[in-house]
Amino acid sequence: MFQIVKKEQLNSAVTRMEVEAPFIAKKAKAGQFIIFRIDSHGERVPLTIADTDAQRGTVTIIFQAVGRSTKMLAQMNEGDFLADFVGPLGKATELEGYKRACVIGGGVGNAIAYPSAKALYNMDCEVDVIAGFRSKDIVILEDDFKKVCNHLYITTDDGTYGEKGFVTNKLQELIDAGNQYDLVIAIGPIPMMKFVSKVTEPYGIKTLVSLNPIMIDGTGMCGGCRVSVGGEIKFACVDGPDFDGHLVDYDELMKRNTFYKEQERHDAEHCRLLNQTV
Amino acid sequence: MPNMAPKKVPMPEQEPDVRNHNFEEVAQGYTEKMAVEEATRCLNCKNKPCVSGCPVNVRIPEFIAKVAEGNFAEAYKIVTSTNALPAICGRVCPQENQCEGKCVRGIKGEPVAIGRLERFVADWYMANCTEKAKRPQSNGHKVAIIGAGPAGLSCAGSLAQKGFEVTIFEAFHTAGGVLVYGIPEFRLPKEKVVAKEIEKLKELGVNIMTDMVMGKVLSIDELFDEMGFEAVFVGTGAGLPNFMKIPGEDLLGVYSANEYLTRINLMKAYQEGYDTPISHCDDIAVVGGGNVAMDAARCAKRMGAKNVYIVYRRSMDELPARAEEVHHAMEEGIEFRLLTNPVQILGDENGVVRAIECVKMELGEPDASGRRRPVPVEGSNFEIPVESVIMSIGTSPNPLIRSTTPGLEANRHGCLVADDHAATTREGVFAGGDAVTGAATVILAMGAGKTAAESIEQYILSKQN
Ligand SMILES: Cc1cc2nc3c(=O)[nH]c(=O)nc-3n(C[C@H](O)[C@H](O)[C@H](O)COP(=O)(O)OP(=O)(O)OC[C@H]3O[C@@H](n4cnc5c(N)ncnc54)[C@H](O)[C@@H]3O)c2cc1C
Ligand SMILES: Cc1cc2nc3c(=O)[nH]c(=O)nc-3n(C[C@H](O)[C@H](O)[C@H](O)COP(=O)(O)OP(=O)(O)OC[C@H]3O[C@@H](n4cnc5c(N)ncnc54)[C@H](O)[C@@H]3O)c2cc1C
Ligand code: SF4
Ligand code: SF4
Ligand code: FES
Ligand SMILES: [Mg+2]
């Protein structure tokens, strides 16, 4: 059992939690993830490790309540216990040796991008962050990002905060202005990662994306998380979740992620914890 | 005078058309009367050929003699003197190739139903004796076991009995390995059998830490250097699924057998009230011919599929699955498409499987394995309309441990290198089960765990002197 020691609402749909998991806290690196299970009847759900505190033995997760499991998780409170919390899974993002990076997050993807920005910044890399959101009311992590980058650019699709437009517009603008990145990290909705990769491809800028296929075990034993990268089958949980953005088959991933849509829609309506329709 | 009936006392079973709609156990077990009657078929042979066929040398004629006398408690003691998990082995051992394959009664007629009797004895004991195992006095030596499958569990049990302080580190949230995620409930009940056997280990003092993906959360070096373990046993199995690398394996509805079975068995997708989703469809093809393929096909039937096909490239004679499972699958209405090999999986406009395209095969010259090699018949391609395909064409060991443990060698198939005493190429590290042999059997994994326990005891005690 793993205790939730801190809970904080970042916006109406995104929650930050700190969970006591000392072994994981000691080992985790940027880019790795955990899998949690609410209770004995829960499914196994992956979430990125947003931060760790080895001293206190805690792991931070930031998640958006989108369906059954994440909605139930959002209902839980400080002091409650999760049945399972396993990690650190996946490969750490390879961040060594870069001088100038642009880290791009889209929506809750910013939570996944944050640890990479922080790690790069602490390795004396010059870091620009482009944090994109649909609208002002869902902006998260602004203060956190400020502490771990040289420039923070916030964009909103509707222009209600920061600059109006998509992260790809801002990235193109920064490249056009002469910024020479040797690494771009893009994490967010699949179309966003696809289009960021399209922007960087002509310049040959190394681009890493973090893929989020449906997973169960997270250790390479089910193959459910397979993605096509450069024409080869990869298991995202062990070979990734980071991959070369220029080689990923995004359309396939998008299709695969919809496989259980019907069942998930149905599931999301009834909350076992509250025993009521939500 | 022994009972000279040529056939085994039949096993009570659920009717095929009933059981293929539920997940309850197919074979319901002997009654005391049936067990005694079957036991009297044993000739108590002097040279005990049956025992030589059992990888852990269960003292077969001795325990069967006790069953014949109606002394089931004593029979249990004899069985468990060499086999820690009899309720499991009695159910899933491929007895026809092992103990029963060597039984002299099998020469004319059917062999003695050794497996069924072993199961009976274990079930009887669980139902009638609630006495807890006595926790032995600790000898102060700490041993770590990685993986809670049959290999790890049996190694843990043997060491705990000798007073070692044993901790099992298991990646999944439940201990049992393939026994809980692979082999389905209707062949091996999880709560009634597997969980009870594991409970007994805990009574012996074995500490089981679940949710620990070793190699990620802790390395073998840390177990030695920081946590004070004196030896490590690696029983991580062969859980990595293979795919055929044919076009269409990325389509929606293509599963590895591991994924399909894990969703059903471990995550209980077949039961109301569990969150894990699974696809439900009318027509489904399972590619492969082993136990795993039979289990996937029989699960698919129970999940409501109307037509379930086993697609296998060789013929009936080469099917690697246990005879009993093939027989059960046929009774349950699984259709066998033999001498048939998939060439691609076809999808509809939404990327969902709509058919599997196959080619007919014929058997040519024997290959390295001694089996006749299947060769495709030119131009014989045809489609089987299905909405889902389950790939069950084998697994290989997970590289997590070997890639994070300096000095631990593996062969070119990824199997850990270990000698007859289960010692690996790294001092203090022992290994056994599927992680060493590749996908094999429960009883071989248990045997390896036991051998390793003996080696670990010797290793630790010799280091002390
Ligand atoms: C490596 C990785 C890291 C992730 N990190 C984060 C994170 O830090 N914050 C965050 O908010 N989200 C993250 N996600 C996504 C998160 O796992 C899904 O939002 C979550 O599984 C949804 O489950 P649900 O039951 O709440 O919703 P559902 O309604 O069941 O699912 C909504 C959608 O989420 C996806 N999904 C469903 N089940 C799974 C599953 N078992 N595994 C993976 N995806 C699934 C599917 O595309 C599905 O259509 C990550 C995913 C992966 C693979
Ligand atoms: C569907 C199916 C049906 C089968 N039917 C039969 C049958 O009828 N009869 C028979 O005799 N055999 C059968 N087998 C084969 C048999 O189950 C295996 O040979 C046996 O389970 C191997 O035991 P093991 O302990 O070596 O490995 P496993 O049972 O695979 O257990 C390995 C354990 O190690 C854990 N693990 C792996 N990596 C790590 C890590 N890095 N850290 C921590 N833990 C880890 C795994 O989660 C797992 O729990 C079947 C196999 C399958 C898949
Ligand atoms: S353990 Fe398996 S092989 Fe040995 S006697 Fe029992 S059923 Fe037969
Ligand atoms: S070979 Fe058969 S008949 Fe002989 S002792 Fe063994 S089980 Fe009994
Ligand atoms: S989640 Fe099962 S192999 Fe990746
Ligand atoms: Mg869900």
Q: Can you offer a commentary on this structure?
A:
The complex is a heterodimer of chains A (278) and B (465). Chain A is α/β, with parallel strands linked by helices and 278 residues long. Chain A contains nine helices and 19 strands. Chain A has two domains: 2-89, Translation factors (Elongation Factor Tu (Ef-tu), domain 3), CATH 2.40.30; 100-257, Rossmann fold (3-Layer(aba) Sandwich). In chain A, strand 3 (33-37) and strand 4 form a beta hairpin. The radius of gyration of chain A is 18 Å and the shape is globular. Helix content of chain B is 34%, strand content 16%. Chain B has 17 helices and 16 strands. A five-stranded parallel beta sheet of chain B has the order 3-2-1-4-16. In chain B, helix 12 crosses helix 13. The interface between A and B is large, with 42 and 37 residues. Bound molecules: flavin-adenine dinucleotide (FAD) (2 copies), iron/sulfur cluster (SF4) (2 copies), FE2/S2 (inorganic) cluster (FES) and magnesium ion (MG). One iron/sulfur cluster is lined by residues 42-45, 48-50, 60-61, 103-105, 112, 114 of chain B. One flavin-adenine dinucleotide binds next to helix 8, helix 13, helix 15, helix 16 and helix 17 of chain B. Chain A: This is Sulfide/dihydroorotate dehydrogenase-like FAD/NAD-binding protein.
